[in-house]
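re: ur question from yesterday

yeah so i grabbed the chain u mentioned. its 433 aa long if i counted rite. heres the sequnce exactly as i have it in my notes:
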Amino acid sequence: MISTIDVNIQDIAHHALLAQLEKYEADHGTVVVMETKTGEIKAISNLGRTSEGTYYEKLNYAVGETHEPGSTFKLMAMVVALEDKVIDTSTVVDTENGIMSVRGYKVRDSRRGGYGKISAAKSFEVSSNVGVVKLIYDNYKDNPQKFIDGLQRMNLNQKLGISIKGEGEPYIPKPDDKKWSALSLPWMAYGYGVEITPLQTLSFYNAIANNGVLLKPRFIKEVREWDKVIEKNELTVLNPSICSQETVDKVKAMMENVLVRGTAKSLYSPNFSMAGKTGTAQTEYWMEGWNSNPRYISSFVGYFPADNPKYTSIVIIHKPNNKVGYYGADVSGPVFKRIAQKIYTDTPIEDAIESLEVKNDASSKDFEKYYAAAQSAKKLMPNVVGMPAMDALSLLENLGLSVRINGKGKVKNQSIPAGQKIKNNQQVALSLS
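ran it thru and got these structure tokens back, copy pasting raw so excuse formatting
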């Protein structure tokens, strides 16, 4: 089996994840790197913590573990709203004091006091829970099925159908489900009440990076028996257009600004461009109220370079030590940046040269002299004095002569004078300087 894994990228991803898991004493984590245009998985690492505090490849979390994604799901929500044209990136939303009440339950922003009146794009960039929830709830509360239809159009309710067994089943609630409640729609807007695997999330972001084309992730290129290809794993398009190019362009700009001036600005680098979204989902909570000692799922998913995506990557770290940190930009973001930085510097995306045609006057003159001699000689001995030995040898052997060479360098003397008639297999001796 010929794998899609790149051992260099795999090494980079694995050690970047391991170092961060150890630093934050996290329960487990996963990282995946996908090639944007092909869907080939270039790296995948899944590490779980042992009772001794070390980490090992415990389970395939990337493929099999569904969980509430938190703020990384805001991209899906924004794409639906932009496609339905119920909002634009310039639509103003009032985040008030950073707290919104829905049926007695609170939606809070991480920033105390909120952000005031901001644009829809800004609410995504700073990951305002209140802003995004208001945008979705206000426009779909009278017809939540329309929002669900938008998510389903983008395949978010379907498995990817990868060849690895155990792929997790995504869960997108619907108004006719028994679990549906008045809180389902606002909770979905910022990634709660839905379940999705890391690989499914990555594939969606990769589709945005790939201008709307949703690809099936590939782990195997082909199967061979010696030099014979038994089975070739071709590129598979799951959805040729999850949304319009207009929407793609808008959310791409928003994701780039997440790193320039949003929640991940600490990861920004002027040396190479990245785009993505942070996520911090609370886990182990009670429906009656938030746990007094909550745990978190920290994530970052995005692509690079921002202007011409080559790779898309997701990093998810479960239950980091709250005392050390838990926000996606702090915990998972640095792993993404480390991977992007190392790939960018260690495995250049492309090398550009001005032209493949290199002009050299001396070489051109030598060739012209050689070509002229070959054309005019026919069955007459050419003048090879002054030629490099290899050129003279090639020319004379092509004329059917048997050549004997003495010395090194250029031809100083030739045993058959120039202009004399020659025969096949006739021997000529060349003395070199």
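noticed a couple things. Residues 3 and 220 are 4 Å apart (CA to CA). also Residues 286-291 have pLDDT under 50 and may be disordered.
anyway ttyl
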